[in-house]
Amino acid sequence: MNFRRIEIIFLVTFIAIDIFLFGMFKKNMDMQADNVSQGDSDSVIVKEMRNDQIKVGNLSKKNENAYYISGEQSDVLRNQMGQLANQTPQFVGHELESELKTPITVDKNNPRKSIDKLLTDSTFVLFGDQYVYSKNLSTSRNIVYNQKAMGSSIYSSEAQIRFTLNSNHQIVSYTQSYLQGIKSLRESSETISETRALIWLYQYNEIPNNTTVAWTNLGYTKLLSIDGDRVFIPTWIIAIRPQNSTQIQLKRINAFTGGIIKETDENLKNNPSSMN
User: Fold this and answer.
1) Could you say which DSSP state residue 82 is in?
2) Distance in angstroms (rounded) separating the CA atoms of residues 125 and 103
3) Where do the H-state alpha helices sit in the chain?
4) Secretion signal: which residues (predicted)?
5) Could you read off the pLDDT tens digit of each residue along the chain, which spans 276 residues?
6) CB burial string 97-126: b at 16+ within 10 A, e below
7) Could you tell me if 155 and 238 are in contact, meaning their C-beta atoms sit under 8 angstroms apart?
8) 120, 129 in Cβ contact below 8 A?
9) Architecture of the domain made up of 39-68+185-275
10) H-helix or E-strand containing 84?
């Protein structure tokens, strides 16, 4: 990786984005700072959301710490797929696609338990210990694992394993992508809280009335690509579901600035209509 090059481009992009988002941040703060404290303001706005028939659970007001991180696409999966056993792997683009010669049965009620054990076997999946189960992105027929990063995980189709199950609860195939050399680009910084992320999404008019907030997660999503290198930022991923619907819509908030992130790439390939 040309780290100097990625660092320069990253810093230029970072400064431009921060200048733009600072204006949005200041506007939002001015709207809220008239006669009430931040905490009181948050409580008022959450109450307004509930009055608009937006269903939300208990929200955390805790600020976390996270990083700007980078990772590199490489041919490491292609180079090592020869050690995989009892399957037929092929490398397509930057993904490893593999069909099992004999389907593997997993626990119907807890597929994670079965797959977690399989991931310890390097002849079944490469670098399996570097992935973590994502309940929220998984369905009964598609089990998703995200690649770990800095105490969290990456929400991107470029750092993911997707296991396909048949109607008999058996793994029949999987697709894997992997980022090599994940590292932080600067020291950790404080993120906004879950409560603040949801409030800003509401203030951006991104949560319609009569909607349920199905789940929220703090993870990493892609900011930019430079050749084979990727830069990721901490992001609040918020799943909303309209009333009387099973369809989930995924929204994203920059966890450093509070700015809304429009999906310009396939960072979140899975958009499940139902959850396990």
Assistant:
1) G
2) 14
3) 3-32, 38-51, 76-80, 111-118, 194-203
4) none
5) 566 566 656 655 665 565 455 555 545 555 544 444 555 688 899 999 999 999 999 999 999 999 999 999 999 999 999 999 999 999 998 899 999 999 999 999 999 999 999 999 999 999 999 999 999 999 999 999 999 999 999 999 999 999 999 999 999 999 999 999 999 998 999 999 999 999 999 999 999 999 999 999 999 999 988 888 999 999 999 999 998 888 899 999 999 999 999 865 444 544 444 333
6) ebebeeebebeeeebbebbbeebeeeebbb
7) no
8) yes
9) Beta Barrel (2.40)
10) none
In the 8-state DSSP scheme, what is residue 151? T
| CB atoms inside a 10 Å sphere around CB 200 | 22
In contact, 174 and 164? CB cutoff 8 Å:
yes
> CA–CA separation, 75 vs 263, rounded Å?
26
At which residue do the structure tokens 């269903």 appear? 55
What distances in angstroms separate CA 244 from CA 53, 108, 248, one per listed residue? 13, 27, 11
Tokens for 62, please give them. 């805790």
For the chain, domain boundaries: 39-68+185-275, 74-180
Both structure tokens of 218 = 């703090």
Compute the distance between CA of residue 79 and CA of residue 134 in angstroms, rounded to an integer: 27
Report the C-alpha gap between 253 and 258 in whole angstroms: 6
Chain centroid, CA 86 distance in Å: 31
Which single residue is written with the structure tokens 């994940």?
182
Q: Which two tokens stand for residue 34?
A: 């008239």
CA 224/CA 65 separation, integer angstroms = 21
